[in-house]
UniProtKB/TrEMBL annotation:
One Pfam family named in its UniProt record: BD-FAE
Keyword Transcription regulation belongs to the record: no
Protein's recorded name: Alpha/beta hydrolase
Domain of life: Bacteria
An example Gene Ontology molecular-function term: hydrolase activity
UniProt-listed InterPro entries: AB_hydrolase_fold, BD-FAE-like_dom, GDXG_lipolytic_enzyme
Taxonomic source organism: Pedobacter segetis
All residue ranges annotated as the BD-FAE-like domain in the record: 57-261
Length: 309
């Protein structure tokens, strides 16, 4: 029975690893977009085993606040692909534009990808360290450490939840950042995986070699629990907005409805924006609400919690 549960867990990871639609590298279009923005690129926030982990910080062109509120973006790509430029893709770029127009900065971060022995635990640790780095260097980047949010999609949606909810003591990173414990005003998570232990939720139709998946995470059920955002739900968590399509066959819509139900039981502030007829990445015909409408709701949620609370 234990082996069956482990195999089920590994199959679900294939959905991230094989088909994440958000995992693309920078294009000429992205470079043209960057020319229109105020940003600092290739900021190294951490070095691990000779690997430099970088972020790009987008700043408002017009400063509106003494210190600048900011969001941190965690990209998708099944933990194995993707980079900091994913934020320039259509699904996330409109909220980014809104943030900047509202006087809010945004840092898009990279993390150790699942290659060369890196695990998902390492990705979570890096995301947490990236936020801690920004807090430590807040004066340098003109950031308001009392107004921080985190957002991302797919694997990045999972990482946004883990970054904002999971306990730092389980993900020990850079020693010089260990005493920094950021607090978050909000979390936005697009079509995430929210549990790796509940068999009713572990639903996917994309498969990959089980041995390779085990290399991603290992077969320890304790690790599965550790990496399940649903296990960190409690009253007093920052407000969370989930966005999920009803036709998602990569990461089932059940991920978000399950998370929402557990949040209601705990009295935690979680909102689910359901996108009818949408698959993973909110792809599909006749989806409702539209991408533009989703972007507006996401933007309004982030601005409200960063600026008005």
């Amino acid at each position: 029975m234990k082996n069956i549960k482990i195999l089920t867990l590994l199959i679900v990871f294939a959905a991230f690893y094989q088909t994440d639609l958000l995992a693309q590298s920078i294009t000429d279009k992205d470079e043209n977009i960057l020319k229109t923005l105020n940003y600092q690129d290739s900021i190294i926030y951490k070095k691990v085993n000779g690997e430099e982990l970088k972020m790009i910080i987008f700043m408002p062109k017009n400063k509106k606040y003494k210190k600048t509120p900011f969001m941190v973006f965690t990209h998708g790509g099944g933990w194995a692909y993707g980079d900091r430029y994913v934020i320039l893709k259509d699904l996330f770029f409109k909220p980014l534009q809104f943030l900047l127009d509202s006087g809010i900065a945004c840092a898009s971060i990279e993390y150790r990808l699942n290659r060369g022995g890196n695990k998902v635990v390492d990705a979570v640790t890096d995301c947490k360290d990236a936020v801690k780095f920004l807090v430590k260097n807040a004066d340098k980047f003109d950031l308001d450490v009392s107004k921080i949010g985190v957002w991302g999609g797919s694997a990045g949606g999972h990482l946004s939840l883990m970054t904002g909810l999971a306990y730092d003591r389980y993900f020990k990173g850079e020693t010089q950042l260990a005493k920094i414990h950021p607090t978050f005003k909000c979390i936005v998570s697009y079509f995430p995986q929210t549990t790796f232990t509940d068999t009713d939720v572990l639903h996917a139709t994309n498969y990959l070699n089980a041995k390779k998946l085990e290399e991603m995470m290992g077969s320890d059920q304790t690790t599965a629990k550790l990496l399940s955002p649903v296990n960190y739900i409690k009253k007093g968590n920052p407000p969370i907005l989930l966005i999920h399509g009803t036709n998602d066959t990569t990461l089932s819509y059940l991920n978000s409805t399950y998370f929402l139900s557990k949040a209601k039981e705990a009295g935690s502030d979680v909102t689910l924006l359901t996108v009818k007829n949408a698959g993973h990445g909110l792809n599909g015909r006749d989806i409702s609400p539209s991408i533009d409408e989703v972007s507006k709701q996401v933007s309004d949620f982030m601005a409200y919690h960063l600026l008005n609370r």
